[in-house]
Design a protein that fits this description.
- Helices cover 66% and strands 10% of the residues.
- It has 464 residues and is an alpha+beta fold.
- The chain has two domains: 14-338, Up-down Bundle (ABC transporter transmembrane region fold), CATH 1.20.1560.10; 350-459, P-loop containing nucleotide triphosphate hydrolases (Rossmann fold, 3-Layer(aba) Sandwich), CATH 3.40.50.
- The strands form two sheets. A four-stranded antiparallel sheet has the order 2-1-3-4, with no helix packed on it.
- Strand 5 (393-400) and strand 6 (409-416) form a beta hairpin.
- Helix 2 (32-67) packs antiparallel against helix 3 (76-122).
- It is elongated, with a radius of gyration of 34 Å.
- The protein starts with 13 loop residues before the first helix and ends in an 8-residue tail after the last strand.
């Protein structure tokens, strides 16, 4: 069993923005029309939400307050205004339903495409990649990391878009209602943004580490389950338990810190929003009494409602920030795998069915004859020669290492004649598996040659 290699913990830098742009490309390119409809529906829903709050001013100042004290009040116009308000609210509900359903379709479609591309690319990767990464770590890409993408696409992206549009529309409405009170709102929002950036930055950093630690512990458990017999044969249970405890402790620390910062985000922003609400009420009341700013009862009611509406999107963005960071960390790991260089095969000698003519010369044929030959096209003169497959395998002064700075086999020369049976015997790490890997051309040698039937193995296509 190979020793678990803990992945390097990346930092949040320009690579994160590059990853986000690449991930967003899956959404906008594959589901361009659907995503445009989602944006339109989010805008409609946001405007409908703001209209409900803004309607308080008109309902109070234009309809309700004028009716107070009348002996025979006429509620016709009030009912009409409420009917219009109900239609606006209903359109917002319908728009929310549409974009929520569409984001589910988009999210699942993107995940399907990502998984398809991951698996297709994985088939092209060299064996060296699977030696460097444990099975559990690779499985974590298909499970834990893709699940974070699902949460981000289905929940975080529409929520952030909705919140951002709500902030813009709300700010415009607040500015129209009372520019003076909006100055206080801007000051409070700057404070909340600074706090959210500080808390969210720490939270995001530990959520990234959590994903990496989760991949490490998944790989370790998968490896120990596969090699449980070996663990028991060598009485390695206690050592395995200690190694697992270290990985589990690392996951515990990163998860605890991530969720600690994430948990305090909501209450901090919420209480700052409550403080803003109180300050706005006090300042608005004082300005109304002093007759400054033309602040009526309807303006105050709408503005206080907007104060709550303005704070809530910041809380929602802050809450989704952690999910986005986790998803981007998972996406970065996925894209790193998809960006791994595929296996290069420059071989051109192939294995074909063959038969012998009357003169005993080999010729290629389509039917199976039980006779195989190496088809060797010569690039110099364009001729093709056929060499009968006999199974003569020879190593000539072969040197090999899994890394360039550490050679494990030095100047090895050996041969296996056709029909001959050989056994490789030696201690663990002596190179038995390495030699069989080289015979299968899972790796290419650094020096020397391996020949099949006197043909350099590098000239033979790997599939053959």
């Amino acid at each position: 069993m190979s020793k678990e290699k803990k992945p390097t913990k990346p930092s949040l830098n320009k690579n994160t923005l590059k990853t986000a742009k690449r991930l967003l490309g899956y959404v906008t390119k594959t589901y361009k029309v659907q995503f445009i409809i989602v944006l339109i529906c989010i805008l409609v829903s946001s405007i409908a939400t703001i209209s409900v709050s803004l309607s308080l001013k008109f309902l109070l100042d234009d309809y309700i307050i004028p009716l107070i004290g009348q002996k025979s009040p006429d509620y016709t116009e009030l009912y009409q205004a409420l009917g219009i308000l109900a239609c606006i609210f209903l359109s917002g509900v319908i728009a929310s339903f549409i974009y929520t359903r569409l984001m589910v379709v988009i999210g699942q479609g993107v995940l399907k495409r990502v998984r398809d591309e991951m698996f297709e690319h994985m088939q092209k990767l060299p064996i060296r990649y699977f030696d460097r990464n444990t099975n559990g770590s690779i499985m974590s890409l298909y499970t834990n990391d893709t699940d974070t993408l699902r949460q981000m696409i289905n929940q975080s992206i529409p929520q952030v878009l909705m919140s951002a549009l709500t902030i813009v529309v709300t700010f415009i409405a607040m500015l129209v209602l009372s520019p003076i009170l909006t100055v206080l709102a801007v000051v409070m929002i700057r404070v909340m943004t600074a706090v959210a950036r500080m808390v969210g930055g720490n939270s995001g950093k530990y959520f990234v580490r959590q994903q990496l630690d989760l991949a490490s512990i998944t790989g370790f458990v998968e490896e120990r389950m596969t090699g449980q017999r070996v663990v028991k044969v060598f009485n390695h249970e206690r050592i395995s338990e200690e190694e697992f405890d270290q990985l589990n402790e690392s996951l515990f620390v990163s998860s605890s810190k991530a969720h600690t910062f994430a948990s305090i985000m909501g209450p901090v922003i919420g209480n700052m929003g409550n403080l803003q609400f109180v300050l706005t009420a006090v300042l608005g009341g004082a300005l109304s009494v002093l007759g400054i700013g033309n602040i009526t009862l309807g303006v105050m009611a709408s503005y206080l409602q907007f104060t709550k509406s303005f704070t809530q999107p910041f809380m929602q963005i802050a809450q989704q920030f952690n999910s986005i960071i986790m998803a981007l960390a998972g996406a970065e790991r996925i894209f790193n795998m998809m960006d791994e260089e595929p296996e290069v095969d420059e071989g051109y000698v192939t294995l074909v069915n063959a038969k012998k003519d009357a003169q005993g010369n080999l010729t290629e044929c389509k039917e199976r004859t039980g006779l195989w030959a190496w088809k060797h096209p010569h690039q110099a003169d364009g001729t093709v020669t056929y060499t009968e497959l006999k199974g003569d395998v020879r190593f000539y002064d072969m040197t090999f290492g899994y890394t360039e700075d550490h050679m494990v086999l030095h100047d090895l020369t050996l041969y296996a004649k056709p029909g001959q049976k050989l056994a490789f015997v030696g201690s663990t790490g002596a190179g038995k598996t390495t030699i069989t890997n080289l015979i299968n051309r899972f790796y290419d040698v650094q020096d020397g040659k391996i020949r099949y039937d006197d043909i350099n193995i590098n000239k033979i296509k790997k599939a053959d």
